[in-house]
């Protein structure tokens, strides 16, 4: 599997090298007219975010036929000197390197622009994808799809462009798709080599510190949380309409990464596996919220890139957080750390303080993301069914669950439902008859308080697909 990536196209001059040879005196009075190069001639430079890329493989296709293969030199440069190319055919350059994702550039053989500029490679990952259509980059069944993005001042804007299709959800909140992603160059230009006769989901977001979606919200993908515009199909090379509603780029910012991991320990020394870490990371005047779920081995892992303002570049990274143990209704003290670059192990922290809440609540984890919501007073009806919230309101009427035959010792949950808009998501879930959710009751010294853990499957109401869910609850009875 390949992962769909965002590429940045830069431009630099191609440099040539020379070697030491024996010298021959030249009669300066003898001159020769320069000889034209037969066929098409192209040159370019392969780069990445860290500089030029040497020893990259450049496959050169004439229509669907692989004509030749060249390697970039120490300066990342390559050319087609000595390669017989037909000026009447399209030519495709497929750039490959073991450390990066493939990038393909197609031109007409009679193009007057022989300098391809910089072909940018990247290993940045945004969405999972298979680029199976690039098995033969020279295929006549591929077309060039391109466009420009300007800001509100009419100047080129830096934006990330994504075009995908054939989306498959292989695991909860994990998707595979075919497609491609690039970043605009210094001229606001982007281009793709994509299959003919294919409808695409098209997404453009301006970059830097305040991202802005530029394309029209016509469809929702990735669990209904991702707005895209539908375009295509295309039979020939196509330039998409200019996007000119981008905000003015922010100057004086720099992208920096921060990452750390920490473990939580219950009072008995076991690790916290059903909990969350909540807090902030900050750099100078900039403060960013954190909300993490514990992975199966009980660790909280955090890694993210941030746009840092110029005045905050020299300030230290700081993190402040608490860890919540939902299974035992405990919370840690607030921890504060200074962070350094790279992965930082903050060790294990004790999660042993008094209950983080004296209110009824339900906590659950889907796709390794924690949700917590307070609920109203529960009740037990005439059939012995425990109802999580006996009263409803606009805030929690759509977050609820029942336990039929609770008074007879039943340990199965039913009707677990939540409206995604109430927990900061755009998707919703509703338990279907085949969704098996089992409860393990936890000790409670108060008969008016029912505590328990639950685990099982819960169906996404949009995709109609079950996802694994686990969580805890505390219900207060009248």
Put the structure in a nutshell.
The chain is mainly β. It is 0% helix and 50% strand.
Explained architecture:
There is one protein chain. 0% of the residues lie in helices and 50% in strands. With 478 residues, the protein is mainly beta. Strands 29, 30, 31, 32, 33, 34, 35, 36, 37 and 38 form a 10-stranded antiparallel β-sheet that branches. The chain is elongated and about 85 Å long. The model is unreliable at 1-38 (pLDDT under 50).
Average pLDDT works out at 80
The radius of gyration over CA amounts to: 29 Å
How many angstroms separate the termini?
Answer: 55 Å
Number of strands: 38
Runs in which pLDDT lies below 50 for 5 or more consecutive residues are: 1-38
Fraction of helical residues: under 10%
**Total number of helices:** 0
Structural classification:
mainly beta
The portion of residues forming beta strands comes to: over 45%
Largest sheet: 10 strands, antiparallel
The general outline is elongated
List the main descriptive attributes of the protein structure presented here.
mainly beta; 478 residues; 0% helix; 6-stranded antiparallel β-sheet; single chain; 10-stranded antiparallel β-sheet
Break the fold down into its secondary structure elements and pairings.
Blueprint: E1 2-4, E2 43-48, E3 51-52, E4 57-62, E5 65-71, E6 77-79, E7 90-96, E8 103-108, E9 115-120, E10 127-129, E11 142-151, E12 159-171, E13 174-183, E14 189-195, E15 200-206, E16 212-213, E17 219-221, E18 226-231, E19 238-239, E20 243-246, E21 253-265, E22 275-283, E23 286-293, E24 299-309, E25 317-325, E26 330-331, E27 335-339, E28 343-350, E29 361-366, E30 369-374, E31 379-380, E32 386-387, E33 400-403, E34 412-418, E35 429-430, E36 437-442, E37 449-460, E38 465-476
Parallel strand pairs: 2-9, 11-19, 11-20, 21-28
Antiparallel strand pairs: 1-10, 2-3, 2-6, 4-5, 4-7, 7-8, 11-14, 12-13, 12-15, 15-16, 15-18, 17-18, 21-24, 22-23, 22-25, 25-26, 25-27, 29-30, 29-38, 31-32, 32-33, 33-34, 34-35, 34-36, 36-37, 37-38
């Amino acid at each position: 599997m390949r992962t769909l990536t965002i590429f940045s196209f830069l431009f630099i001059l191609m440099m040539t090298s020379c070697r030491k040879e024996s010298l021959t005196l030249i009669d300066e009075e003898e001159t020769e007219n320069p000889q034209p190069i037969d066929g098409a001639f192209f040159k370019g430079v392969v780069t990445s975010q860290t500089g030029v890329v040497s020893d990259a493989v450049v496959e050169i296709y004439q229509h669907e036929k692989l004509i030749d293969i060249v390697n970039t030199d120490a300066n990342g440069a390559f050319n087609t000197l000595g390669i017989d190319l037909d000026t009447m055919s399209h030519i495709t350059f497929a750039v490959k390197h073991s450390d990066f994702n493939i990038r393909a550039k197609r031109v007409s053989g009679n193009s007057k622009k022989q300098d391809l500029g910089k072909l940018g490679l990247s290993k940045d990952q945004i969405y999972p994808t298979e680029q199976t259509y690039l098995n033969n980059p020279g295929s006549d069944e591929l077309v060039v799809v391109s466009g420009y993005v300007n800001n509100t001042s009419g100047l080129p804007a830096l934006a990330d462009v994504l075009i995908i299709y054939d989306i498959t959800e292989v695991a909860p909140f994990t998707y595979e798709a075919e497609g491609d992603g690039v970043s605009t160059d210094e001229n606001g230009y982007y281009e793709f080599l994509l299959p003919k006769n294919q409808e695409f989901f098209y997404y453009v977001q301006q970059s830097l510190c305040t991202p802005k979606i530029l394309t029209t919200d016509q469809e929702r993908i990735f669990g209904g949380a991702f707005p895209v515009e539908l375009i295509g199909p295309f039979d020939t090379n196509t330039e998409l309409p200019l996007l000119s509603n981008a905000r003015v780029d922010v100057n004086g910012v720099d992208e920096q990464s921060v990452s750390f991991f920490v473990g939580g320990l219950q009072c008995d020394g076991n690790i916290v596996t059903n909990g969350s870490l909540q807090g902030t990371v900050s750099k100078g005047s900039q403060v960013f919220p954190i909300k993490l779920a514990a992975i199966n081995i009980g660790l909280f892992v955090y890694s993210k890139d941030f746009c840092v303002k110029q005045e905050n570049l020299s300030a230290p990274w700081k993190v402040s957080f608490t860890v919540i143990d939902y299974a035992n209704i405990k919370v840690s003290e607030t921890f504060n750390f200074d962070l350094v670059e790279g992965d930082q192990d903050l060790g294990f922290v004790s999660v042993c303080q008094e209950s983080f809440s004296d209110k009824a609540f339900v906590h659950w984890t889907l796709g390794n993301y924690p949700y917590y919501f307070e609920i109203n007073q529960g009740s037990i009806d005439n059939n012995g069914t425990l109802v999580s919230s006996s009263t409803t309101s606009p805030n929690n009427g759509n977050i609820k669950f029942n336990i039929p035959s609770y008074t007879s010792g039943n340990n199965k949950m039913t009707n677990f439902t939540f409206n995604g808009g109430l927990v900061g998501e755009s998707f919703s879930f509703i338990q279907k008859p085949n969704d098996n959710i089992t409860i393990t009751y936890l000790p409670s010294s108060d008969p008016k308080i029912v505590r328990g853990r639950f685990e099982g499957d819960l169906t996404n109401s949009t995709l109609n697909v079950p996802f694994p869910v686990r969580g805890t609850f505390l219900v207060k009875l009248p």
